TrEMBL record:
<feature type="domain" description="Extensin-like C-terminal">
    <location>
        <begin position="57"/>
        <end position="231"/>
    </location>
</feature>
<dbReference type="Pfam" id="PF06904">
    <property type="entry name" value="Extensin-like_C"/>
</dbReference>
<protein>
    <submittedName>
        <fullName>Extensin</fullName>
    </submittedName>
</protein>
<dbReference type="InterPro" id="IPR009683">
    <property type="entry name" value="Extensin-like_C"/>
</dbReference>
């Protein structure tokens, strides 16, 4: 009897949703399109993962950013090296920040970056550093290699352009900080870097930094695989 009631409840909720009797906010609805300015919720990462094989929907989400606040170029699928084909990728030139150089990223990675920047990075910069981020210095996104460059083992997220390694930030007021020099700082710079790490965990599938191991002492690895792996 109890099981039947539960089933009936699910059916009733499903009908109510279909008929529009119950409305779920777009940012909580897994089936709804993703907009970059929607609040970030636990559903956001699921929505990003759904875009891995849906280029059209991913580009549509990127295009919810005003043109003046994002510069990117959609790229056709290609094979830069024989064992590392790239698909559903774009080249990121700039967003609300400059980059030390443009980079190739899967469309979901580019979208995750833009959402992270707008919802977490810039608010933390203004609150803690008293200035917005003007430039992000990164170590790259694509490298056809295994994890840690080992001769054998699983492929790195960088082999499919699904991760970006961020090494430092330059601010509009002229301040410049790096993970290597400021992660352990007890003042504002260290606080900002930790806030930047924590905010990234809400959007990216995995975030690895100096607290993880020595290999990440000088950068944040912002990757799309997994779900809320934050170290």
């Amino acid at each position: 009897m109890r099981r039947a009631l539960i089933i009936l409840c699910f059916i009733a909720v499903g009908v109510a949703l279909q008929q529009g009797i119950i409305e779920i906010p777009r940012h909580w609805a897994p089936w709804a399109p993703l907009y970059v300015d929607d609040p970030i919720t636990p559903v956001t990462q699921l929505k990003l993962k759904r875009l891995n094989d849906n280029r059209e929907a991913c580009l549509a989400a990127l295009n919810t950013v005003p043109e003046s606040e994002l510069s990117y170029t959609p790229l056709a699928d290609y094979v830069p090296t024989a064992s590392c084909p790239l698909s559903n990728v774009v080249r990121m030139q700039s967003s609300s920040v400059r980059f030390n150089q443009s980079f190739v990223a899967t469309c979901p990675l580019a979208l995750a970056w833009v959402m992270y920047e707008r919802h977490s990075l810039q608010p933390a910069a203004e609150e803690i550093m008293g200035s917005r981020v003007a430039q992000v210095d990164h170590l790259g996104s694509f490298a056809c290699r295994n994890v840690y460059g080992r001769e054998s083992g699983r492929r790195s997220e960088h082999a499919t352009a699904e991760a970006l390694d961020v090494a430092g930030f330059r601010f509009e007021n002229g301040q410049q900080i790096t993970l290597l020099n400021h992660w352990d700082n007890d003042g504002a710079t260290g606080e900002f870097l930790r806030a930047a790490r924590d905010g990234a965990c809400d959007v990216f599938g995995n975030v690895l930094g100096p607290d993880y191991n020595a290999a990440h002492a000088d950068h944040f690895h912002l990757g799309m695989r997994g779900f809320r792996l934050c170290r």
